[in-house]
Amino acid sequence: MAVYARALFPRVLVVTAVWIIASGTITFAADRTLVPRARVKTTPAAPKPILIVPDVRSQTFVFAKGILEDGGFAWHVAGAVHGFATNRVVSQTPTPGTRVFDTGAPTIRLSLARGQYGQDGTPENMAPYPGTSIVLADAVKTSAAKLAAKHASAAPKAAKARKAVKTRKPARVRKAAKPAAKRAARPRKHAARRPAAFTVPGAPKEPMDEISLPARARLLSAWLTPSRGPTAANQRHWLYQHAWIVTGARFGWWHGGAALRILISVDRRVEAQWGIGGRSESVARSVLAAVEARER
Fold first, then answer.
1. Which of 59, 95, 194, 274 fits as disulfide partner to 230, beta carbons 3.0 to 4.6 Å?
2. Strand order of the sheet with strand 88-93?
3. What percentage of the chain carries pLDDT values higher than 70?
4. What is the pLDDT of residues 105-145, one digit of tens each?
5. Is 11 exposed, middle or buried (0-12, 13-18, 19+ CB in 10 A)?
6. Measured between alpha carbons, how far is 264 from 281 in angstroms, rounded to an integer?
């Protein structure tokens, strides 16, 4: 019996060891199964803002490019007529009112016709900053729009049931409205006239719904604070206001010479703060000399 027990003892040890290893493996596998992996949350990309293409047709080129630049667009002149300040826009691509994604500076293609004035200087056929491609927003259908249309077309049944069960309240007797007292007609204030400094044949008249050239120049001077940096938007604003004042003074608009003197001081500050503006200052000085010669 002792001999049989000694012979059986090694088998018992092996079976026990196998059982211990197997139970440990099962426990380890159970631990791996019960602990779920952490899921990484992904943040959906923010949708790009949408821009509306403005209508610059029939506008003088110097005003058209300013409108586009203020709206966040770049521009490109195509065709035989180049980008001189007094030429006029006859067509644009995309058409006005088109919805496009803000890809940085979507490029609007302009076709010009020659104006009534001489084409002096160097034409500007490209925006002063790189443009980006046009991506139409109406051509892209988002899942949110589809979901909204689905909910709008299917009326909830619960709402219909509540509406059917709801009792109508008795109509309230409304008091007769008192006759409104007639307001005295106020005389309209006519815009102050701004006599032209001189007459230029075929030049557009100064728009009375816009501020005067000296007021525009003073606002530009107050806008250019020492802390304002040379960002693309700030440069577009300065160039647009600069072009408006220079062109208006060239057309003989009211007090154009005074506005140009303020503008020249602004250009000198731009050159000191941003490192640019020398060319714009020279243009303003040459126009000021021509304006002073005609005002004599």
1. 274
2. 74-77, 107-113, 88-93
3. 66
4. 999 999 999 987 777 778 899 988 899 999 998 776 554 56
5. exposed
6. 6
For residue 41, give both structure tokens.
Answer: 């949350």
Domain chopping of the chain, boundaries: 45-140, 213-295
The CB density around residue 48, as the number of other CB atoms within 10 Å, is: 14
How high is the mean pLDDT of the chain?
78
Confidence of residue 189 (pLDDT cuts 50, 70, 90): very low
Structure confidence at residue 149 (pLDDT): 63
Beta bridge partners of residue 113, listed in sequence order: 88
Alpha-carbon span 175 to 180, nearest angstrom: 14
The whole-model pTM stands at 0.50
Quick one: fold of 45-140? Trypsin Inhibitor V; Chain A (3.30.10)
